[in-house]
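Model it.
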Amino acid sequence: MITTRMLTARTAFRQPRVATAAAWLMIGLGSLGLSACGGGGGSDSSPVVPAPVPEPLKLIAPPTTAGTLGQNGEAAQDSVKATAAAAANLVRRSEDPSNLFLPFGELMSGRQNSHKPSAAEPERRKILETTTVSCSSLGISVIRNCSGSIVVDTNVSNSATSLPAGSYISMRFDKISGIVDGQSLSIDGGMRIDFLTAISNLDNPGNNVRLQLSFDKLSASGGGESFGPVTAVALLEVDGQGKPSLTLNGVQYAGLNELSVTDANNYSLGHSKLRSAHWSDSKAFVDTQFSNWQTSNGRPLQGSSATLTAGKDSALITVESSSSSQVSYSVQLSSGGVAKNYQVLASYSGSTVSYSVKAL
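Modeled.
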């Protein structure tokens, strides 16, 4: 039997309440339910019916060919605009109430807290050995009065202590409802976790882990927020240093644990990184690496910097001065060992932004 363990979800982005509660439920099931469908049955003698979650949709990854940046004034201006767009992309992802992908990156990087078995755990194991799991049997303390059921299907044996590549857990949430922080919560729909790499120790997954999360018409509401139905596929990876990244809808996000967001106009990106399609060539990618990038009242603060990389070309962008009406950027464009420097001024008038470029 796989050891039951409590997991602490340290979300990479600030999670809206409904997404946090839904993620807790999924993580609780993922940690307790690996033994749900493999091996011996419990008191339920009904036949095992796989959860009706379809095969995963195709993952949309960024292009695999590096783009180019150029070294003229237009390239300097475009690099500044692309940096602002990349920052906004990260923030939009963090503010999306359907952010259920992100806690799993923390889970798989091995940030877990063990606990002493409680008296309720043997009964949970007995319940989880059947096909259908009642929400109340999971014992997730952040969700009170939890009702509804979850149909679970997996190819993982109930005696497994490790997972080979190709393992999966499939779940269908059927009218889940409960109370979180005094607010009602509801969840409905399906999800599937595919383990693309082997995990030698379930109690400590470690680094160099890849898994795919597939959501099928998943919806939730609670605390004045709602999302869905969501149908999407995301790739979560933990690299050799234990840093998680997320690939979703053609964009790869890395360094997510360094992102701190208050709202769309006030945030800190730390050393977050984003890989996306080139702004003028959808078949090529550009990497944007932020370095202590901070934004207040919609303006990047002095000292914030970012580096755009496309093949052998790079653009180093630094905020030299910042006010409510104007932001001055220094831009160094490098290619083949040759560097050219520019100043880009962004002038604000209401919601309109205009740019001017000067070679240095």
